[in-house]
Amino acid sequence: MNHPPFPPDAIAGVDEAGRGCLAGPVVAGACILPQTYDLPGLNDSKQLSAAKRETLYPLIRSQAVAWAVGLSWPGEIDRVNILQATFLAMGRAVRALKLSPRFLRIDGNKIIPAHALGLGVSQEWVIGGDGSVPAISAASVLAKTFRDRLMVKLAARYPGYGLERHMGYGTKEHMEAVARLGPCAMHRLTFRGVRPEPAVQRQGRLI
C-alpha cells in the first residue's frame, strides 16, 4: 500500500491485544507519535519482554502526541463475536484520542468498519505493521501493557484461575482451572475451551 500523504504526527497507529484469549477483554491501543521521539527498542509488543514493555509504556504516553485504549468486554465479545468486538475496541480507542488523526494505519489485514469507527477518517491495513510501523508498535505496547495490568487486577477479583500468570490465554493451567471451577464472569462463553462441549452419542448412549 502507498504511504498516506500526511506527516507522522497526523497518523494514528492502531493494534489490539488479547484477541485470542479465553478470558478478559480485548484491548485496542491507538497512538499518534511526534515526528521525532526517543523510544529505544520500540517493536511489536510480542517481541518484547514484559520488563521492556513496562519501560516503554510511560515513555510512549509521555512522548505521544495522543494515545488512548479502547476495550470490549467478554459479554460483548460473546454477543457480537471476537472480530466485531475487536473492531469496536479499536473504534473506541481512536475516538478517545485527544487529537483527531487524519489517517489510520491498522495492524493486520482489515480496516475498521465504518459502524465501529464512527469517524470519517481514511485508513489502511498493514500486515506485520506492529513490527514495521512505529505508531502501530507503540499502540501494540500500550494495548498489551494496559491489558496485562488489568488482568492482574482481575485475578484478585476472580482467584483460582491464574489470570495474573497467563493473562487469560488458553494454557494448560487455565484450562484445568476452568474444568475444575467452571467459567467466571470474565470468561468468553462462546470460545472453545470455555463453552461446554456437546455430549457425543455413541452406540445409543450419551457420553
UniProtKB/TrEMBL annotation:
Note describing how the cofactor binds: Manganese or magnesium. Binds 1 divalent metal ion per monomer in the absence of substrate. May bind a second metal ion after substrate binding.
EC annotation from Swiss-Prot or TrEMBL: 3.1.26.4
Name this protein carries in UniProt: Ribonuclease HII
One BP term from GO: mismatch repair
InterPro entries cross-referenced by the UniProt entry: RNase_HII, RNase_HII/HIII, RNase_HII/HIII_dom, RNaseH-like_sf, RNaseH_sf
Cofactor field: Mn(2+); Mg(2+)
Pfam families, alphabetized: RNase_HII
